[in-house]
């Protein structure tokens, strides 16, 4: 069985509001058979590839790429994103996207 994953780097400026975002989006994420595998707070990026600073890195997964796209375009998710994510995150860097066999 395969799964689609994305590694993401963020610049989080408000941890509390970002945590509220995570809690609000998790039920919607579950509806799309998604979840998190890794979640790190980082203090230093040794090899930056973009101009964005990164202080949070995580892997988010879905059953397939279409489920990921549907999740990120879901109107309920977009409301949560506007209410919390946009107020707590300065930059987003997509590090990689890939399909893995589990």
Short précis:
The protein has 102 residues and is an alpha+beta fold. Helix content is 39%, strand content 37%.
Describe it:
- With 102 residues, this protein is α+β, with helices and mostly antiparallel strands.
- 39% of the residues lie in helices and 37% in strands.
- The chain is built from 3 helices and 4 strands; from the N terminus they run E-H-E-E-H-H-E.
- A 4-stranded antiparallel beta sheet has the order 2-3-1-4.
- The radius of gyration is 14 Å and the shape is globular.
Provide the fold topology.
Blueprint lengths: L1 E11 L2 H17 L3 E7 L14 E7 L2 H9 L1 H14 E13 L1
Antiparallel strand pairs: 1-3, 1-4, 2-3
Radius of gyration: 14 Å
Give the averaged pLDDT, no decimals: 95
Strand order of the largest sheet: 2-3-1-4
Structural class: alpha+beta
**What share of the residues lie within helices?**
25-40%
Number of DSSP helices? 3
Q: Classify the beta-strand content into a percent band.
A: 35-45%
Number of strands: 4
Keywords summarizing the entry:
4 strands, 37% strand, single chain, 102 residues, four-stranded antiparallel sheet, globular, 3 helices, alpha+beta
């Amino acid at each position: 069985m395969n799964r689609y994953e994305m590694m993401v780097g963020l610049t989080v400026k408000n941890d509390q509001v970002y945590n509220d975002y995570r809690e609000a989006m998790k039920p919607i994420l579950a509806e799309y058979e998604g979840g998190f595998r890794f979640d790190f707070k980082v203090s230093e990026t040794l090899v930056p590839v973009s101009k964005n600073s990164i202080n949070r890195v995580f892997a988010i997964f879905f059953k397939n790429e279409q489920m990921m796209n549907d999740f990120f375009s879901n109107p309920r998710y977009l409301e949560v994103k506007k209410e919390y994510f946009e107020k707590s995150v300065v930059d987003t860097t997509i590090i990689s996207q890939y399909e893995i066999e589990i």
